[in-house]
Structure to design on (265 residues):
């Protein structure tokens, strides 16, 4: 573990990476349907950090179905804007409360220094959540009095109502994994959507730790983590897909197909 000096790794970080990481679906940690796993490596040393559940089409279907239930029938659809604001703010606080732990995980997964990970990635991500928490109570429509020139003297009344779109799939890159996840997750949750988060296979551990801290019993889970894998034939599709990635080969078919849906950037 060159990126984080062996003797400096916090016990909580050692404990977290000691076991196989599962998928968070519907508020529960579960194995991949296939039972498959894959290793993640420290880019500084090439040493294996941990094993991750290998998500595939069936797992994506389960994640979308769970996110859909949370949106249609679950507690998230009944959460008030004020409650969403407090929950999203708490996610930012969680990052700050465990800043060193998240920074070490980011360094192990990503290869950047702990100082940069803590001073930039963790602090910035917390700030993003705190900022968008306030938007949960600021999203509102308009009342309009239209003028209809072809009907003189007529009076009309119209209004707009901003509503969440539903389930959002969010594809996260490896270079700023915490920051990019925060940029996508926070506004989607503030608007009342539910989310499937697909982290890069190289840098999944910080999001797993984040999810394990936030998805406590009794909490209102509005997002799931869908692990990287060969999710090419998923039958269920989210309403919106958003991704941030460097130029690369064509995305997997499940991502290309979902691009026919309305896109959020």
């Amino acid at each position: 573990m060159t990126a984080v000096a062996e003797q400096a790794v916090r016990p909580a970080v050692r404990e977290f990476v000691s076991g196989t990481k599962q998928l968070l679906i519907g508020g529960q940690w579960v194995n991949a349907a296939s039972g498959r796993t894959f290793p993640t490596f420290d880019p500084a040393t090439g040493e294996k950090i941990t094993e991750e559940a290998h998500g595939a089409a069936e797992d994506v279907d389960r994640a979308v179905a769970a996110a859909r239930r949370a949106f249609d029938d679950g507690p998230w659809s009944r959460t008030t804007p004020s409650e969403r604001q407090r929950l999203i703010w708490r996610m930012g606080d969680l990052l700050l409360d465990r800043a060193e732990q998240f920074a070490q995980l980011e360094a192990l997964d990503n290869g950047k220094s702990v100082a940069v990970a803590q001073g930039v990635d963790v602090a910035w991500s917390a700030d993003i959540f705190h900022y968008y928490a306030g938007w949960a109570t600021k999203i509102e429509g308009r009342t309009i009095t239209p003028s209809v020139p072809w009907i003189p003297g007529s009076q009309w009344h119209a209004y707009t109502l901003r509503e969440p779109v539903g389930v959002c799939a969010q594809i996260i890159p490896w270079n700023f994994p915490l920051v990019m996840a925060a940029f996508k997750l926070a506004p989607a949750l503030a608007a009342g959507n539910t989310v499937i988060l697909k982290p890069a296979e190289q840098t999944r551990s910080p999001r797993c730790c984040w999810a394990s801290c936030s998805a406590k019993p009794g909490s209102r889970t509005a997002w799931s983590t869908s692990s990287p894998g060969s999710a090419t034939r998923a039958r269920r599709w989210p309403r919106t897909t958003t991704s941030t990635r460097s130029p690369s080969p064509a995305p997997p078919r499940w991502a290309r197909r979902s691009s026919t849906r309305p896109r959020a950037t």
